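FAQ: What does the model actually see?

It sees only this:
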Amino acid sequence: MFLWIFFLSINMFQSQLQAQQQQVAISAKLSVHSADNLFDIEGIVTNKTLTYQSEYSYLLFVLKKSSKGNYSKNSQSGEFSLAPEQKKSLATLKINVEKGENCKAYLFIRKDNALVVKDSVSINLRDQEIEETGKEVDESEIGIKGLVVENTKTKPGRDFYDYYYQDYLSSQIKFPFIVRISEKPGRGRSSQISVIVEDRVLYRFMTRPSDEYIQMNAERAFAYTYSYYTKRAFLFLSNKNKKY
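And it is asked to produce this:
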């Protein structure tokens, strides 16, 4: 009887621990510091648990719209881990904002390619305000097309990105979503490269020390991305026509 209660207590504790781990373990915040028209936009994360958090990735980027309607962008991405209750600065982007310009900053935190937490801010000098847009932000709301974010670590990974981006530019298409190319260590000297769109892995492969093999996979990856783009556009038009 005692052993049964003991094991039941252990199972209950493990279930509670798993439920706690399924909750959002970290928080993300964009901190903005200004001096005249120069803004420092800092991405900060905090571990809200008493356990070590690892294998997270981040994307911090800033989009600025000029008074003439032209866009410019600046981004930084990487991976990070957090000790229990640790607060960490991931990256800081510096941006100059003049009157009449609008600037939006976005911070996305992912684990296993799934979006975990996000934050955003909007800077508008015309109204002399900094607005926190918070949890409602989504990558599809960013308002700029054709962004390909690279997070590679090896020469094959960078070569893959170059081949993929060349195919993208040659197509003269502007995807209405963000394409993320990430790389993780594999066995031996190989690594795993993934092409991710809207939290979906469209293409994934293990690298080899062969330029021809890397180029072939870049072409295939772009073909998969283009197929996703066309199907997405078709569904969008179908849903739009149903409303009328």
